[in-house]
Fold this sequence. Notes:
Layout: E1 5-9, H1 16-29, E2 36-40, H2 46-53, E3 58-62, H3 79-84, E4 89-92, H4 95-99, H5 105-117, E5 121-126, H6 130-134, H7 138-149, E6 161-165, H8 179-197, H9 199-204, E7 206-209, H10 218-222, E8 229-232, H11 239-246
Parallel strand pairs: 1-2, 1-8, 2-3, 3-4, 4-5, 5-6, 6-7
Helix pairs in contact: 1-2, 5-7, 7-8
The structure holds phosphoenolpyruvate (PEP).
Amino acid sequence: MRDYYIAGNWKMHKTRSEAAELAGALAAQLKDGKHKYLVAPSFTSLETVGAIIKGTNIRLGAQDVACEEQGAHTGEVSVLQLKDLGVRTVILGHSERRHIYKEDDELINKKVKLALKHGFEVILCVGELLEEREAGKAEAVCETQTAKGLAGVALEDLDRVVIAYEPVWAIGTGKTATPEDADAVHAFIRKVIARLYGQAAAEQIVIQYGGSVKPENAAQLMAKENIDGALVGGAALKAETFVPIAKFG
Ligand code: PEP
């Protein structure tokens, strides 16, 4: 059986003291939580948050990583530096990286392979734009982003890969995909994984939903057969909204 996995992406929010306050509240309030949890603060708060959640049931994640191990890459952060901070998971291919910073599937794939090589868990985000959905291309976009993002990833590393289906039109907009629509795309992504890695791998892989997940809609989304958790943005910034999502149901 797949375990539910609820992750909070704090994006470019919070100073270290604000991040520490939230991390402390989550550590206390999720102590008895039954699912798998992750928080991904900004790079600048990783060390602070890492010290607070050390030994708790909350994993430390980063929101991105460089595609090279080290070297002349001004402004980038390497896998070695993240490992040194105790980061265990990296979010890759987030729609803000794809669409604002023009990351393409080839670059994302390079990052995926490098992070896996260094033992990280990877949350690979995929999802269509509104115009792609309206043109009937949602599945094709998710198929391409999944297949290209995972190109060259071996089956034995797939247990450290999580897919986050995040329809771009639902991110930060307050519009959520209906549980039925999201489940249909999750089922489709599972089929893509089955084609690439076989049925057993497809049944095991965790597929999170992301896009305006809130306390009010979390349980209905999680009730769907193919939805195994959530990648949460806005509602992850406060304990009073993240905790009820993390303890949905
Ligand atoms: C996200 O950024 O991954 C996200 C899903 O954001 P929000 O929950 O704010 O839509």
